[in-house]
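Technical annex, item 7. During the second reporting period the consortium partners agreed on a shared format for inverse folding records so that results from different sites could be compared directly. Each record opens with the tokenized structure and is followed by the designed sequence. A conforming record, contributed by the partner at site C, is shown below for reference.
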């Protein structure tokens, strides 16, 4: 009887473990290469911070670094306007001009915004370069743990703005959202936002050049 009961427990444990492994299997499929192209767009929104004030230049650098971590083109432009006398401000207007990876099948579904020629001119990228297709992969990015971004608890409202106004317009899927900002109160914890983003895969030529150097 003990053997039978022991066997039953092992069978039940195996079934449970098998269930736990299913999400991992689907994640592996998500990371398979995807044929992608560049989607150009301009995103505008306002930053309002009850807790944290930013120098406009610092805000631009931080937002661009986050977008680059999520697969945005290296020529992405971020402009923050409204910081008077170059002093930190709690209210300013942000304009993002960027190109981000999109599955080729979705390129024709993207709505027309500003003239593509105008966006390319602002980005400083030749149309031929952005018309090329390339391999990309779905990559899970934990923004709060990315040392290059060096996010801090005071960045909560900045992350909140990106989550609400920018990420919905990109090829980004939010997996975990622990961005809970309390006005005029800095949390002890860095705002946590985990997403799956479509990121260009390293090109063979680029990988070869790095190996040679």
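Designed sequence (site C submission):
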């Amino acid at each position: 009887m003990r053997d039978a009961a022991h066997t039953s427990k092992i069978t039940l444990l195996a079934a449970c473990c098998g269930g736990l492994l299913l999400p991992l299997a689907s994640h592996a499929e998500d990371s398979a290469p995807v044929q992608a192209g560049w989607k150009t767009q301009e995103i505008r929104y306002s930053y309002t911070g009850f807790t944290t004030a930013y120098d406009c230049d610092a805000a631009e650098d931080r937002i661009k670094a986050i977008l680059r971590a999520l697969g945005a083109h290296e020529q992405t432009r971020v402009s923050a306007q409204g910081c008077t006398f170059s002093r930190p401000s709690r209210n300013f207007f942000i304009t993002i001009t960027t190109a981000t990876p999109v599955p080729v099948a979705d390129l024709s579904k993207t709505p027309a915004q500003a003239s593509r020629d105008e966006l390319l001119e602002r980005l400083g990228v030749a149309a031929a370069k952005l018309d090329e297709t390339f391999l990309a992969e779905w990559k899970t990015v934990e923004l709060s743990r990315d040392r290059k971004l060096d996010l801090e608890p005071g960045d909560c409202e900045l992350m909140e703005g990106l989550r609400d106004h920018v990420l919905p317009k990109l090829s980004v899927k939010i997996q975990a959202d622990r961005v809970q900002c309390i006005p005029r109160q800095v949390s002890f914890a860095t705002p946590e936002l985990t997403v799956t983003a479509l990121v260009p895969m390293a090109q063979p030529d680029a990988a070869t050049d790095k190996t040679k150097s």
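The radius of gyration is 21 Å. Residues 49 and 157 are 6 Å apart (CA to CA). All partners now use this format for quarterly exchanges.
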